[in-house]
Every structure is written in C-alpha cells, then in structure tokens.
Amino acid sequence: MSGNGKNGKKRKGLAEASPHYHGHRERLRTRFRDAGSEAVTDYELLELLLFRALPRRDVKPLAKALLAKFGSFAEVIAAPPTRLAEVKGLGDSAITEFKLVFAAASRLARGQVTKRPMLSSWSTVLDYCRTAMAFADKEQFRVLFLDKRNQLIADEVQQVGTVDHTPVYPREVVKRALELSATAIILVHNHPSGDPTPSRADIQMTQAIVEVAHSLGISVHDHIIVGKEGHASFKGLKLI
User: Fold this and answer.
1) pLDDT digits over 21-36, tens only?
2) Of 231, 234, 224, 240, which is closest to residue 188 (Cα–Cα)?
3) pLDDT tens digits, 135-174
4) Domain spans of the chain?
5) pTM reported for the whole predicted model
6) Judging by beta carbons within 10 Å of its beta carbon (0-12, 13-18, 19+), is residue 187 exposed, middle or buried?
7) Strand, coil or helix: what is 151?
8) Which CATH architecture has domain 118-233?
9) 8 Å CB contact between 92 and 115
10) How far is Cα 210 from Cα 204, in angstroms, rounded to an integer?
11) Each residue of 132-148: b (16+ CB within 10 Å) or e?
C-alpha cells in the first residue's frame, strides 16, 4: 500500500509538472519559430536542444550550468563528449543531440566552400575553419588542397597533437599535395588557448613547408590559425 502511494505521488508530481514545462517549451518554440534565433539567448537555444533528450525535466538550470562551464553556445556544442559528460545531469541522449548540431554546422560550412574558388570567398573559408576547429581542445593541423582554379580538392586533418603542440612534417604535407594533384594549399591549425597569435615554432614550420612546396611548384596561399578569440592570417601578417 505504502509503495503504491509513493508511486502514485510520483506520478501525480510528474503530471502536475508536465503542463508547466509544456507551456514554457511551447512558448520558447513559438518565439524561436516566429522571431528566429536572434530572439532567444544562448541558454534558451540550449534548452530547445535539451527538450528532446530530457522531456520531463526543467532544463534551464542545466543549460545555464553548461554555459558557466564552457562559456558560449558554440563552445558547448563543440566540446568533446568526455567533457560534456562531466556536467551532472547530462546523459548520452543530450550529448548526441549536441554532436548532431555540431556535425550539421560543419557540413553546412563545408558546403559553402566546396566547388567555389577559395580566394574569392575568403570570409566563407574563415567561417568554415572556425566552425571546424576553433573550439577543439587539442591542436589540429589540417590542409585544404586546391586545384588550378583554387577550388577545394580535399580537406584533411594531417595531425592531432596536444593542447599546445602538433607535430608537422613539411615533406609529408607536400607529398600528399602531389598525390592529390593539388597546385596550391591552405594550411590551418587551431590554438586551444584561444589566442591565435603565431608562435615562433608556427612561423618556422610554415616557412619550411613554403620552401619545400615552392621547389615542387605548389603554392602556399596562407596559413590560418583559429581560436576562440579570432583568427590570424600569415599572409595578412606578411609572414609568407
């Protein structure tokens, strides 16, 4: 009898809570539909994603906890699953929702740079690089391989390193360019610290790649470093 009473109270509590959550969720969804993403805050956008994974919980505290830990909507979505799992109350379903959004954003950004001359849509290239790498917790070194019309042949992560170092082998980069019949490349890597300022090692590595590539008729258009605080262009800084 007592057990049934407890279960009954529990069911009653959920039944009473559901209309409140339902009303809040519908109002938030309606505002998003009618006024667009600019009408909702970062934590409300996270709430909208969490609604599907956690249908019977007030997810506002969880959304705010995620922002407090990671800093922004973009950083939450891009965070590694292992770090997301550290947040109390965030399970596999919610993490999967976040990773789906991140994958969709990356695909959309990649679609904008595919089949277009890279050098004529530079802001789109920068947006793609930031989406793909700016919030990663480890350094990644990737290369965009271009054909003679400066259209993308391939986008490949060459190396993944630690929080502040990635080993890069200039001859391997150029060898891969030759394999793909690329006539030009754009180098990209991220700084997990957030500050995109090139280090001495970054400059030396870039110069080594430029020298090897030039000797084989391959142009290095730029080396872009992305971070949470922005980006740095070696060409813009006159480092190449």
Assistant:
1) 667 777 878 887 888 7
2) 224
3) 888 888 999 999 998 888 888 988 886 656 677 889 999 9
4) 2-105, 118-233
5) 0.64
6) buried
7) coil
8) 3-Layer(aba) Sandwich (3.40)
9) no
10) 10
11) bbbbbeebbbbbbbbbe
